[in-house]
Amino acid sequence: MTAATTETAAHAPVVGTGHTRIEGRDKVTGAARYAAEVPFAGLAHGWLVLSTVARGRIRALDTDRVLAMPGVLAVLDHRNALRLTTDYTGLLGTRPDPTCAVFQHDRVPHLGWPVALVVAETSEQAREAAEALVVHYEQEPHDIELTAEHPGAYPVDGHMPAVTGKGDLEAGLAASAVVVDAEYTTPEEHHNPMEPHAATARWDGGRLEVIDSNQGVTWVVGELANLFSLDPAAVRVRSEHVGGGFGSKGVRAHQVAAVMAATLLQRPVRVVLTRRQMFSLAGYRSPTTQRVRLGAGPDGRLVALEHRSISLTSTVHEFVEPSAAVARVMYDADAHHTANRVVRLDVPTPTWMRAPGEAPGSFALEAALDELAEKCGIDPVELRLRNEPERGPVSGLPFAGRNLAACFREGARRFGWADRDRRPRQRRDGRWLLGTGTAAASFPSGAAPSTATATAHPDGTFTVRISAADIGTGARTALGLVAADALQVPPDRIRVRIGDSDFGPAMIAGGSMGTRSWSWAVKAAAGELRERLALGADIPPEGVTVRSDTTEAIGSLAPAERHSFGAQFAEVAVDPATGEVRVRRMLGIFAAGRIVNPLTARNQFRGGMIWGISMALHEEAVRDRASGGPVGADLAGYHVATHADVPHIEADWIDDTDPEDPVGIKGIGEIGIVGAAAAVANAVWHATGVRHRSLPIRPDRVLSAPGPAGAPDA
Q: How many Cβ atoms are within 10 Å of 624's Cβ, its own excluded?
């Protein structure tokens, strides 16, 4: 057929209309295969053995008895493992976490450190043998406790400046009519997705192939190639379906161990992490202690702002939770100082977790803004509107769109904020004290270079290929809509293939940059293909393919502060007799660029807001000081919000198309959690008259908190 017949006479745009997920039926019927479900002939199974001490050295491993057990094929440890290369900088601009470079030495830097891999014919045999392996240690004293004044704290730049400052902070505070000076803490939090981390490695004709569950095949290819000193072209990583990631599914010990074992045995080897192992090897959000000092005039306008945060990292790798960075975007003052510091402790390395920095940082900053509003006698929404900056408070750059004020105005209208009595402890419903709270949200809006191909077939259909990752966001569906509009054909004529490194380099699913980056590449490829087809030539049997590369286009963007914004509103009920806190309703209004698929986007926003409820009221990982390990390292001991905890949650958005983006996208994956915990905490204050500056707001903390002066009896 000719190219001209592939176009419809009048194409109605589909970006911005709701569509169910392309792969939805396969997922709910079980047809979609995840990383641990793909069959292979001759498959062997590896089981990681993790250290049972928090610090020390491996003195001996009793492997002989384990090797004699039924089905056992090999035991890998520091004495016989392949040597790895770790002296490199990876895709994300950081050095690799040595935790993934398994079995390179006899040192143990934290509880749950990988010390061996047992490989057997079946998963059951591997697990039994791994649990039978006796490891002898020389144990050393360990330190796992993070404190605000830890002597080992030091500033860390991480992926942004460690310290920023302008103006005389102390003078500004001294001259302020109203001052807030408070310390806020957030606990260690884990983002274990429903699908455990899993990888299968095999060699095929001299080429390494890894079937994996990850957030970016390009990322994993680069790391494995570097670690094993391979040509990246000799490594193929596939990750078709991913059951959640939230920042945790990068390069971990299980992938590297699987490659090691497959290389030794020359047969496919699969390694799957258990839920308990994920608490040691999948990363987590560091606990934070944050001090916020605000100085304002009687009208609530900020004169001085200081936001300092301290978090922890491991002794083997440096990772910072940049909680103070949120203040560098949200509010300005003549004296404006922020600092992120970190302490090295004998714990596993933290990692990116949904809205890294912004989630815990917004709790502290937005709670402090609420305290300032109370002291000034100004409505919390009005206080924020009065402190809207014209340019980036630290960078001085213009905002590439900042519609936060519109979010607050629309949210306040829909939430019924005007009917609110600002005084605390004024509303009751039987035994319940009722309160409402609000908070602002922001998250960076970035894009990274990606490549994509678009192919026209003789039957009038099209195939789009890109090394994207769908970690539950509906990326396939969104990219299909973008391609359909660029080609001006119905979506059912588009086939989207993702999750294969052979499709070329692409951005990871992270930093709320995935859909924006991939759509840029897809639209470029599809648009050029449509232009080529418009010439009317016949389409050959192999099709017509166009490849795009957005490196130059994205690199030419002018410097600016690019962010999505939002306003969070929450209503809570607190039982003063039991300390129970119930969220009754939440509303989030967001300015997050053009929404590609409203159906999946609303679920993204709501999912983040639900996580905010969980952060505010439930989530808290506790480490045992004696062992150095987490207490209750499973989804029974680590509490998260369940269906009964989730009330009516409404998420919506305002028109906020980004003119610099080819599709108008900004990014929505993480902003839903930002500010959500603060809105809940502020609502708890409004209900009870008591400030809770430490999360989660557990019943015992509600009961033990001192009552407000002059408050009526519960």
A: 13
